[in-house]
Structures are given as structure tokens and as C-alpha cells.
Amino acid sequence: MGCMAGVLRKPWDLPFIARPEEVAALRRVMRLHLGLWGLYDVIDDAQLCVSELVANVITHVGAGTPATLAVSMSDTRLRIEVHDPDARALPVLVAAGAGSEAGRGIALIDAVAVQWGVQLTPEKKVTWCELATGLSSADGPCGGPRVTRVEALLIEYPGGGASLAQSATGGVLAVVAAEHAAVDLIADVLHWLRAHGCDADTALDRAQTHFEAEISESEGNSK
User: Which of 17, 98, 110, 182 is deepest in the core (most CB within 10 A)?
Assistant: First the structure.
């Protein structure tokens, strides 16, 4: 999935039964989906929120309650919801004491989320939270500051700006055009290195080594 073309982050939901043994499975599902979305930096916080939202249902509504985990993008934020059928047991933020177990779950969510809340309907309760992702748009490219810097270069590169704009709207041909612009930019950098007496192959090897090390570290941090 090409980051330059954007990532289509479609909402998804997963029904489950609120039991302690389900929490680990829900955390794995969250990690898998956020990895596919390229949102490695928020995986840990998202898994924490899932754990605490589900624990809240188990504790205050009851183990065995049918519930649903729903995940979507709210503009550039990651939105996590847990739906349950009891509109009476409302979660609240409690200033829990050092020895208190009650109130810690929502306090943890409050610490990592941009915002959280509860929505009530006649049939159910939705407890939700939103996490900052650092994306420029809901379907924006992943990769952090390095990707942002390259896109800034490509916008100024001959043919790159148009290709980048087209790739953002989707389509295989547009993505291929944007990739060609990026390859041309890399080739020009290699010409520049050669013109200044540098070994282009050595530079490529070093860049590949740096790239693989950073990807490995990023994937390791997400586990």
C-alpha cells in the first residue's frame, strides 16, 4: 500500500462478548488494523484504550455482555468506540487514590486521548475516545516527517507536483506516475553524488541500511 497515494482507512467494527479473555484478542486485532493503516505510533495507546473500554463494560455492565468495538478516522484522529446495551452504567473520570482500583481505567484513557466521551441512545451506550495521529488528512500518507519532507521536495520537482496531486485522488496510473517522479528524484540525487566524487552505490547501500533499520525499529516498537 503506497503511502504517497494515501491510505484508505475505512471504518470497521467487530462484535464481541465482554469477557476478560477477549481483551487480548481485541488488542491483537487493533494492532493488526493499525499496522495496515500505517499508524504505528498510536498502536500502544490504542491498545490501552481498547483494554480499558472493554474492562469498563465487564466491570460496570457485566461479564458476558454483547458489545461492539468500532474504529474509524475522525478527521485526522483515530476514533475508538465500544458499544454496549446498558445506557445506565455511565463511565466517569474519578480522581482515584494511590491505593484505589476504581476510576483508573477512564483516568488512563483521559491521559492518552485528545478527548473522550459517552453517547446515549434508547438502545445502547457508546463510550469513545480519540487519539492524535499526526496525519495531515484522514487518508493522508503515513511515515512521519521523512515522508512529509519528501513530498515537499516532490511538489517542487518537475512533474512531481502534478503526479502527487493525482495520486492523492487514487487510481493505479496516478500512483505509478507519482512513483516515477520519486524515482527520477532519486536518480538526480545519485547524479549529484557522482558529480561531487561520491560513490553512488555506497550511498544507496547506506540509505538502504538506514531505511531497513528504521523500519525494523518502528515495527518492533509496535509489538
Answer: 182
